[in-house]
Design brief:
The protein is 52% helix and 10% strand. It is mainly alpha-helical. It has a single domain, classed as 2-Layer Sandwich (Alpha-Beta Plaits). Strand 1 and strand 2 form a beta hairpin. The radius of gyration is 18 Å and the shape is globular. The N and C termini lie far apart (40 Å).
């Protein structure tokens, strides 16, 4: 169902997202709010991502229901999360998130969609304080901000066939990255699970 009915809904969610990532010490690489869902790339500093997303969703749902005189669930089920390798994969994910409104035929260009971090990262609009614009631009190397912003813009708007990347991001794969990255992450998850079991 549509979870953002007007600009006030979108603004409230962005404000709430900023509050929660600040409170939980989470780095926000990018976001894109769509009429019936949202995408956000987050890097937690501790094991609190599920709690943070639950907080965003529950506070927004309560606010939205009150504002629109509705009852019941606003979000369906648990959020989908993937662990993404920064090398090579994070840039592809940034492009995927920024182009969501274009793929959905809501706009012709990503900068025309107000409810995305694309324009802030590209230097076309002020950046929300919680958005890690510098971290995204540093993926393109060192240089002056306007040069890196141009690199980011070219990366997002390049005419490439990235259907394979889109399929991987849309897949149910829990970890996106090289084989070595997947092995490292899987071992870390298993070690954390064993440690948690020992504590019980």
């Amino acid at each position: 169902m549509t979870i953002f009915l007007d600009d006030a809904d979108y603004r409230q969610f962005v404000h709430l997202l900023g509050d929660v990532v600040d409170q939980f010490g989470i780095r926000c690489w990018n976001y894109c709010l769509m009429p019936n869902h949202y995408h956000v790339t987050l890097q937690p500093s501790q094991a609190n991502l599920s709690e943070a997303v639950r907080r965003v969703n529950s506070i927004y749902a309560s606010w939205w229901n009150r504002r629109h005189a509705r009852v019941g669930h606003v979000f369906q089920g648990r959020f989908k999360d993937q662990i993404v390798d920064r090398e090579g994969y994070l840039l592809a994910l940034s492009r995927y998130v920024a182009l969501n409104p274009v793929r959905a035929s809501l706009v012709k260009r990503p900068e025309d969609w107000r409810w995305s971090s694309y324009s802030a990262t590209a230097g076309l609009a002020p950046s929300p304080a919680f958005l890690a614009v510098d971290a995204t631009l540093e993926l393109f190397g060192e240089g002056e901000a306007h040069v890196l912003q141009a690199c980011f813009t070219r990366h997002v708007t390049a005419q490439t066939d990235d259907a394979a990347w889109q399929d991987r991001i849309r897949s149910n794969d829990r970890i996106l990255g090289t084989s070595a990255f997947k092995e490292t992450v899987t071992a870390a998850i298993e070690a954390a699970a064993m440690l948690e079991a020992d504590r019980r």
